[in-house]
Amino acid sequence: MYRIYRDGQLEDYKKRTGVEYWEKYWSEQVIAEELKKENILILKTLCRFNSGGGRILEAGCGVGSFLSPMVHYKYDAIGIDYAADTICSLKKAAPDFNLVAGDVSSLPFDEQTFDGYWSVGVIEHFRDGFEEVIRECHRVLKPGGIAYISFPYMNLSRRLKGLLGLYKSSPDKDLIFYQYVLNHGRVRTEWVKKGFDYIRHFYMFPHFKAPFFKMGIVRNILDPFHHHSIMLVFRKR
Predict the structure, then answer these.
(1) Which DSSP string corresponds to the chain?
(2) How would residue 181 be classed by pLDDT, with cut points 50, 70 and 90?
(3) pTM of the model
């Protein structure tokens, strides 16, 4: 990973990206392993704000890591991803899943179709911004519907390293843009401007998992420093 710091956020570059990269990364073995997991994040977030039986869209479902527990908890869940081969493999592994191959910036669903919109690790991959993703999310959600948006973010340690000049300042010409590590305040502002109310946030994927970091006071102090991603929860006005 080649990482540069620019305009208060990070840009990640790799040798290969796009659909072919993800098709190779998401092998049938990976799908099989992911479908066995019970993802606790569903209990902490989705089950908290959307009641069971609600219609949920997972925008960028990948290998079904979150779709599987959604189905387990009796949600009417639909997964969409632009990696068509992965969708085909997932259909073979989980034939009861409702799956669609498509683009999250141009969703093939009617207005006000869903009670919830779940998207983990998607918006950061749009080189020219995610305005169309917000627009489509707003379009397909019912009034009062909940959007769960997760992405790598500029935690306090990343901000400090950026200010100290510990990242590169320009990209390598031989590499391709992979993703942003986003400023979550800016992301929050963009969603609010497009017709959503902010509810709260959750930290995701901690770099440090020792029991010490899970203690109440310690967790409250250190959480903003070391998590890889953050999830922002919004309600459509």
Answers:
(1) -EEEEETTEEEEEES--HHHHHHHHS-HHHHHHHTT---HHIIIIIHHHS-TT-EEEEET-TTSTTHHHHHHTT-EEEEEES-HHHHHHHHHH-TTSEEEE-BTTB-SS-TT-EEEEEEES-GGG-TT-SHHHHHHHHHHEEEEEEEEEEEEB--HHHHHHHHTT-SBSS--TTSEEEEEEB-HHHHHHHHHHTTEEEEEEEEEEES--SGGGGSHHHHHHHHHHHEEEEEEEEEE-
(2) very high
(3) 0.89
